[in-house]
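#structure-requests
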Amino acid sequence: MELTLELRENAGLQWVLERLSPMSPFGKAAAREPRWYAPGQEAALEEELDNVALGLALWDAAGGTPQAEEPLCCCDALPRLDPAALEDTTAALRGVTRCLPLFHDIRGSFDRDPGSPFDLVELFEVKHFLVTLEQLTQAYAALPPFRGIDFPPMGEALELVDPEGRRLPAFAVVNAYHPELAPLRAEKTALEKEIRAASEEEKSALLERRRQLAVREDQLELEVRAELTRKLMVYREAFLANMDALGHLDLLLAKGRLAKRYQCVRPVLSADNHLVLRGLRHPQVAEELAGRDEAFTTLDLELSAGCTVVTGANMGGKTVSLRSTVLSLLLCQCGFFVFAQSARLPLFHQVALILADSGPGSGGLSSFGREVHLLDRLLDQTRGQRFFLALDEFARGTNPQEGAALARALVRYLGRLDCMALMTTHYDGVSDVAGAHYQVAGLVREITDDEGEDPRRRIARRMDYRLLSAPPGAPCPRDALRVCRLLKLDPELTELFAADL
């Protein structure tokens, strides 16, 4: 599945990815393109989640990781670490995290013509990589093992760039690389000393000899670099495999740190195509609300095959419920813990979110035209696949009679496919044909001390954002007039509106 930037941003996945903190260029690259675990890859996903749990347990043991100002959820059943070895484990974790930021991305150096030798800068970076890798793997060996993380041995490659065994990151073409280098350099040093003491008449011949020696030295160093390149390129696949392992390890530690910071929960994979979310939050929205001294109302949601419809008041959080559900699925299928108190999630080949606005890249289509285009493309791409679809106010951009009829038809049609769908709507009659119906509790609180208050806060203080199970066919709430009055719409206009209801 392609995790497009639009899907990432609309669901909130991009916000989450930007709060990861991988330390190496390889971890950062892995975070930019997280792996998608599709149906049939449950074992691989469970392994990834095991690793995230281990990463979280390591950060928990180490302590000192900053917490969110307000915890978003809880995480249980962490791997148990040997209490007697906690100090060594913490020291090993410090050793690994000290090394990760020191790496440079040298993948480009191994994508070269065989006849093009490494230059001195590249050889320095290769040696620096190998010395740092040796230090990291020594620290990593003292940690509980992450599953699937293997570092191919690179001792022979390290000996090539560090023949003296000094383990210093600096690189030079030392005398040990070629039998002619030591006598040539000794002669060159003696000659330079002689040049400093020579008269002007004597210097010309001495300088010419020094030039000849320098040219020969350059030739020898080129031969050495060419030979080193040939020998190092034998280990190309091992270098790349180690970079992949570094990126995966770095990403796992970043996932664990994120889970600790927000107290996320490990999702349980559902084998019966049933979705259950308890205490669900959207972290981006929760952070925005916290900045206004408001609290996020957690959501409880159960979905099964077919289409579930959500109705409720304007500004009642219906879109947030879609985004929160889609974010949980995306996170789970990318091997992350999720922002909930508990999560039981099935796997899908594709997860889609179609929001009720034309948005960027609409190609001049109206919001309705864009919705239809995106829906058609999704249905074509998912033939023979299991998919999840979240639709926000589908068909609201056309006339109400046709829009309601199309929404009802889509709910019935989705019920015939191998999919799970969640649709918000203001149209009556749509929930009649849905598999399940939720309704936002709505404007239920009576508050009088709100003069001069920000209109958005005025509504938020009265709104109950909980999703409540509702019977099929229950009429959509009629809260538009109350919302208009709370937003202080011109009283004369508001009364005309009320008279026409």
